[in-house]
Amino acid sequence: KMKLSKIKKNKKASVQDLLYVGITLFVFAMVILICFRISTSLNTEFQASDQIDAYGKTAHQQITNLYPGIIDNSFLFVTVILSIGTLILAALVRIHPIFLPIYLLAWMFVIFLCAVFSNAYQEMAANPDLAALAAQMTLMNQVMTTLPFIIGIVGALLAIVMYKAYKGDQYGY
Asked: What is the pTM of this model?
């Protein structure tokens, strides 16, 4: 109970949480693409090697084949969990409605930054070395292509959650 009251008192910036979600998804997408590229290159080397037996080659090929489906679904799962977590944390905060214009300005800035992240991801995914691999990650590509839109929706829900439930008498304002 003590921890919950500390969280309620110390939770201040839900716009900052939106930025964290955008940065986390961007970095995670970049790491996934790079790791997928490395895994595919290693698989090519494994298959060409005479020193590795058929069992090892088959095992590595199976792992490489499973990578896109598992990681792609995991990326969508992380996106949903981060968004829900941000909304839950925002529900713990009551902010005076006078701060809504400041929130809206910061929210627009975060959407702009997420558009930059989205464009950077699309540039990397369009790289000839990564294009075929990125095409296999359909859910991740969709999330990263629409990242500003997703952050915009989550930000609008955050505003509703934080400002709608405000009751000045209850918190001494």
From this structure: 0.83
